[in-house]
Structure prediction request, 165 residues.
Amino acid sequence: MWPFIVGGAAVAVAIAKSVVDRWKEEEKEEERKEEEDKKRLLDSGILEVDEMTGKEFERFLDVHFRNFGYGVTLTQDSQDYGADLILYKDGAKTVVQAKRSKNPVGIKAVQEVAGAVRHYNGNKGRVITNNRFTENAYNLAESNDIELWDRKKLIEFILTAKKCK
Prediction:
């Protein structure tokens, strides 16, 4: 009877080790894929940004701001109260609305981030786009102390990031 029990225990241990080894391999593979994605995003230029989805653009900004030493929190996909990223640096909290768009960005994005700054108790708000802003967006941003990063500012940010690598 004992040899049967000991043999069964050995088989159970071998199966458990196999499962743990598989989990470790899957975890390493996931980490490798995440690093490849991060590198791809860091190597991307404005033309790649133009082809990204909104979520990819948010992730793009996430890895770049982290590269500049910011703490970054990505908000949830829905019910985010107008914020896509929260940036932390030097004791300041900046609430960011990311707008990867084929069209000029209007006042709605400025309104959303202005509300999000209050909701998240931020120090300032920023809207970042790969396009340009409408005149009304600039007017509203000025009266609400919201910083606007248009295509030119985004390109400068990308180029500076590439020099820092």
